[in-house]
Design goal:
Blueprint: E1 2-3, E2 6-7, E3 9-13, E4 16-23, E5 27-36, E6 51-55, H1 59-64, E7 74-78, E8 83-84, E9 90-92, E10 99-101, E11 103-109, E12 125-132, E13 135-136, H2 137-143, H3 147-151, E14 156-163, E15 172-177, E16 180-186, H4 194-202, E17 212-214, E18 222-223, E19 229-234, E20 238-246
Parallel strand pairs: 6-17, 8-14, 9-20
Antiparallel strand pairs: 1-2, 3-4, 4-5, 6-7, 10-13, 10-18, 11-12, 11-17, 12-14, 15-16, 15-19, 19-20
């Protein structure tokens, strides 16, 4: 978060923010200063070394895209440069004629880990946040792979903060565009749950503190346009809101 152009980590309690010294992955100490949440500007709560996203992890979304649910998790990477925070604009690239929203639960890794058993996943997770896996849908179809379609600058809004106490078994996930509900689902509808995904992904690649895993999107994806505002809300976490603008 930013306060008077200075950057701080903080602990949000209601409408109060306890400013902290240190880093969430290396230990935090209170600074002895409490400010109002309305007086700070929230930025992306984490800048990951990598964002690992899971495709087709909601059966209804797979069907709406004309696909089957894969036999194993289907993963792809989004660059760290795609990450933005609350209130920052999603910029529509000139190369695409259709850019879509995808509301998702994001898992933030808290410890260096590899080959994590499912029953120990909770030990390596720092917390959870909201994400929007913004996608240039036309480029996804024409390119034959997803690197460009998912990787533009601003295509991974995260926030508003990392919730460390969160029940992910059946949390409501909603996407609104200009206040209109476009997507509404539940984490309970995921084909593969959080623990299975973290365990499986950690068997493929080493996870580093701050890495983010996007767990898939419910049905209802659709286009966004300049001048609109996109909001992703997850019960138990909060709401992530971003305006949409054309790339200058």
């Amino acid at each position: 978060m930013s306060l008077d152009d200075d950057l701080f980590f903080g602990v949000v309690e209601g409408e109060a923010v306890i400013l902290m010294n240190g880093h969430p992955f290396g230990g935090l100490e209170p600074l002895g200063q409490i400010v109002s949440l309305s007086d700070v500007r929230l930025i992306a709560p984490v800048l990951p070394s990598k964002v690992i996203a899971v495709g087709r992890n909601y059966a209804e979304h797979a069907r709406e895209m004309g696909n089957d649910v894969p036999a194993e998790p289907m993963i792809f990477l989004k660059p760290s440069t795609s990450v933005i925070g609350p209130g920052e604009p999603i910029t529509l690239p000139w190369q695409s004629e259709r850019v879509d929203h995808e509301a998702e639960l994001a898992v933030v890794i808290g410890r260096l880990c590899r080959d994590v058993p499912e029953d120990r996943v909770d030990e390596v997770v720092l917390g959870y946040t909201c994400a929007n896996d913004v996608t240039a849908r036309d480029l996804q179809k024409t390119d034959g792979q997803w690197g460009r379609a998912k990787g533009f600058d601003s295509f991974c809004p995260l926030g508003p903060w990392v919730e460390t106490e969160f029940d992910f078994d059946d949390a409501r996930v909603v996407c609104r565009v200009n206040g209109e509900v476009r997507q509404e689902g539940s984490t309970g509808q995921m084909v593969r749950g959080v623990r299975e995904l973290v365990s499986w992904i950690s068997s493929v690649m080493t996870l580093i503190p701050g890495d983010v895993i996007l767990t898939g999107t419910p049905a209802g994806i659709g286009p966004i346009h300049a001048g609109e505002t996109v909001e992703v809300e997850i019960d138990g976490i909060g709401a992530l809101s971003n305006p949409v603008v054309d790339r200058g």
